[in-house]
């Protein structure tokens, strides 16, 4: 007869099994942290883009309404432009107001004034502006003319469109708007 050995039952894990399981768990946790980090970064980028898109939509809408309701020539100066338009924020209907669009101080601002009603309103449309460029479309030369930084006194006075290039931290905006049946005057201040 063969000798019988008593089988001993082991409880627990060996040290190698523990190290392998920790290594596998570490790999899984590392992969999950990379995925979660990318999700958070994408969410942050999406929120920044959505904010910039809504700012751009508001700016486009206001500029379009101002240009479509223009009453007098557009006055262009070094810091922006002014115009008289029937589009206003005071009433639902048309009321001619003087509007100034300024691009100084790292912000895009829209000022609306009617001195006869003692009314004024300021809107900061883009709070963090890096750079900007304003151009007009000259129908005689059929090209865009940069108004800022050029010799404005040599420009013609009949234009059919305005091009506004704005750069912020989040996005670059290019806005083109038709100027209906009017002209632009430039100030060489």
Summarize the structure in words.
The chain has about 190 residues and is an alpha+beta fold. It has a domain at about 55-185. The model is unreliable at about 150-155 (pLDDT under 50). The relative contact order is 0.14. The longest helix is centred in the first third of the chain and has 54 residues, at about 15-70. The strands form two sheets. A six-stranded mixed beta sheet has the order 5-4-3-2-1-10, covered by helices on one side. A four-stranded antiparallel beta sheet has the order 7-6-8-9, covered by helices on one side. It contains one helix and ten strands. It has one helix at about 15-70, and strands at about 75, 80-85, 95-100, 110-115, 120-125, 130-140, 145, 160-170, 170-180, 185. Strand 3 and strand 4 form a beta hairpin.
Please give the structural blueprint:
Blueprint: H1 15-68, E1 74-77, E2 80-85, E3 97-102, E4 108-114, E5 119-126, E6 129-138, E7 143-146, E8 161-168, E9 172-178, E10 184-186
Parallel strand pairs: 1-10
Antiparallel strand pairs: 1-2, 2-3, 3-4, 4-5, 6-7, 6-8, 8-9
């Amino acid at each position: 007869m063969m000798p019988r050995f008593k089988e001993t039952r082991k409880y627990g894990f060996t040290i190698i099994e523990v190290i392998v399981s920790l290594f596998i768990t570490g790999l899984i946790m590392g992969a999950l942290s990379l995925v979660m980090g990318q999700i958070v970064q994408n969410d942050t980028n999406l929120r920044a883009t959505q904010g910039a898109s809504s700012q751009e939509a508001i700016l486009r809408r206001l500029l379009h309404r101002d240009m479509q309701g223009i009453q007098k020539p557009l006055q262009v100066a070094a810091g922006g432009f002014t115009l008289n338009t029937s589009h206003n924020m005071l009433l639902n209907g048309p009321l001619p107001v003087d509007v100034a669009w300024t691009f100084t101080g790292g912000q895009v601002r829209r000022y609306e004034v009617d001195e006869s009603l003692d009314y004024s309103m300021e809107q900061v449309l883009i709070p963090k502006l890096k750079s900007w460029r304003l151009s007009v479309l000259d129908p005689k030369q059929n090209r865009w003319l940069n108004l800022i930084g050029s010799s404005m006194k040599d420009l013609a006075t009949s234009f059919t469109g305005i091009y506004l290039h704005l750069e912020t931290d989040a996005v670059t905006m290019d806005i083109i708007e038709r100027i209906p049946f009017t002209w632009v005057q430039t100030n060489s201040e």
